[in-house]
Each structure stands twice: as C-alpha cells, then as structure tokens.
Amino acid sequence: MSLAGMTPKDHRKDNINFIKAKQEEIKHRIEEEAKPRPEPFKLKKFAQVPSKISSIMTIDTNNEQSVLKPSRP
C-alpha cells in the first residue's frame, strides 16, 4: 500500500484508543455508582409518616428466608 501512495490503517493505535475510551467510561460509571443517592423527595408535613407498606407488612425473623408476611388477617 505504501508503494501506491496510501498509508495503511493503524489498527493497533485504533485498538489502544478504543481500550482507553472504554476504561474511562467504566471509571466514570463506577464513580457515579459510588456516589450516595439523594433521599427521595417527601413533603415536610409527611416527613414523620411511615410508609404504607411498612405498616402492612412485617418481616418474619423466625424463618430462614425472611419472607414478608402480612400483619393483618
């Protein structure tokens, strides 16, 4: 190819650039996952109110699998 006046494509360089870009992408994704998530929005007047599901369901600690069971009949 160099005899014909064309320069051959450098696949090694392309692969190295691709790998570096992937590493940066993974690094940023890991940093995003490590950040603490913000607390879900809740109106101030409902801040002390427990969620509905916590009042309906209780965790059965006697069972090895900790299956949720309704506390109401």
Task: Kindly describe this structure.
The chain is 40% helix and 8% strand. With 73 residues, the chain is mainly alpha-helical. The mean pLDDT is 80. The protein has one domain. A two-stranded antiparallel sheet has the order 1-2. β1 and β2 (68-70) form a beta hairpin.
Oligomer: single chain
What count of helical segments does DSSP give? 2
Mean pLDDT: 80
Q: Structural class, from helix and strand content? A: mainly alpha
Number of domains: 1
Distance between the termini: 82 Å
Identify low-pLDDT runs: none
State the helicity in percent bands: 25-40%
Q: Report the sheet with the most strands, covering strand number, pairing sense and barrel closure.
A: 2 strands, antiparallel
Give the strand tally.
Answer: 2
Radius of gyration: 28 Å
Strand content: 5-15%
Q: Could you give the order of strands across the largest sheet? A: 1-2
Sequence of secondary-structure elements:
HHEE
Instruction: Tell me, briefly, the overall form.
Output: rod-shaped
Blueprint of the fold:
Elements (H helix, E strand, L loop, with lengths): L10 H24 L17 H5 E3 L8 E3 L3
Antiparallel strand pairs: 1-2
What would you say about this model in short?
With 73 residues, the protein is mainly α. Helix content is 40%, strand content 8%. The protein starts with 10 loop residues before the first helix and ends with a strand.
